[in-house]
Specification:
alpha/beta, TIM Barrel, three-stranded antiparallel β-sheet, 11 strands, globular
């Protein structure tokens, strides 16, 4: 499955594991990379010394490329960038911030830069800043999201038509059929998040993983657009947010309600009532907790089968 994305990243399959906070440590990243995809360490939930530990363990666990996702709004982003350079990371995904801030610095150190965006505007800005590829993430995705609420089906072809670098589709992709659809829209590859949350190697709490598997259609909603739009599962904390909206809560009151470490409390510590449970709409389609390698193999197999079925019809 060679194309310009696999060539750029040095991977076998054009399949990227999303760098999700509290879920994407070295075990998951190395397992995905060893299976032929691109594993990504999610640094947004790590202190600099913890990131260094994960980088070293990942390098020891795989001889294949892996990446680090860095949310640019992270308070200690300078320390993370220094650690990344010091440890010889070759691929960085930036997100949640201005791509022009760190792209040149990373590229000056020989690092391939991919920026995650939810709009054509910021995809163009990322390319103008020197990004080697962009992730076009539709609002179906879990976690923090675009204010425009543009779906993956709409966003991917818009970004594909606007930029000349490889485009990675994200949001609502958890199987080979969705991967094929994204490629048909013009993507060079896909980024998968929620499916890997429910992997054996994910650092998410077992209770959260099972809660995701048990979820149904409509169990996630986008909220907190006044702060930073985020897709959450319904629980007591989510109900408290809705109640705050009904009483006309101010932005400051919403910040106070959110507090600190809500995501850690929910996804990492397993508090399913008071924690922030970030996951994508596609959680309703997930059917079990699997090894990361099995997830990669299943997606690629489904992709090939779906492509072959279409090739035998009159549609192609």
């Amino acid at each position: 499955m060679s194309n310009r994305l696999t060539s750029l990243l040095g991977i076998r399959y054009p399949l990227v594991q999303a760098g999700m906070i509290w879920c994407s440590g070295w075990r998951l990243a190395s397992a995905v990379s060893n299976a032929g995809g691109l594993g990504v360490i999610g640094s947004g939930s790590m202190y600099p010394d913890v990131l260094r530990e994960h980088l070293r363990k990942c390098k020891a666990a795989t001889n294949t490329p892996f990446a680090v996702n860095v949310p640019l709004l992270y308070p200690n982003v300078e320390e993370h960038m220094r650690t990344i350079v010091d440890e010889g990371v070759r691929i960085v995904f930036t997100s949640a911030g201005n791509p022009s801030t760190w792209t040149k610095h990373l590229k000056d150190h020989g690092i391939t830069v991919v920026h995650v965006t939810a709009s054509v505007k910021f995809a163009l800005k990322a390319v103008d800043s020197g990004a080697d590829a962009v992730v076009a993430e539709g609002f179906e995705a879990g976690g923090h999201n675009g204010r425009e609420e543009t779906t993956t089906l709409v966003l991917v072809p818009l970004v594909r038509d606007a930029v000349n670098v490889p485009v990675i589709a994200a949001g609502g992709i958890a199987d080979g059929r969705a991967m094929l659809a994204a490629m048909a829209l013009g993507a060079d590859g896909v980024q998968v998040g929620s499916r890997f949350v429910c992997s054996e190697e994910s650092s998410a709490h077992q209770a959260f993983k099972q809660h995701v598997i048990d979820s149904r259609e409509g169990d996630t909603l986008l909220t907190l657009k006044e702060l930073a739009p985020v897709r959450l599962m319904r629980n007591k904390f989510f109900a408290d947010i809705q109640a705050a909206y009904k009483r006309g809560a101010s932005t400051e009151e919403l910040k106070e309600l959110l507090g600190r470490a809500r995501a850690k409390r929910g996804m990492f510590e397993g508090d399913l009532e008071e924690g922030e449970l970030e996951i994508g709409q596609v959680s309703a389609a997930l059917d079990g907790i699997l090894p990361a390698a099995a997830i990669v193999e299943r997606i690629i197999s489904e992709y090939r089968i779906a492509k072959a079925v279409l090739a035998k019809t009159d549609m192609l």
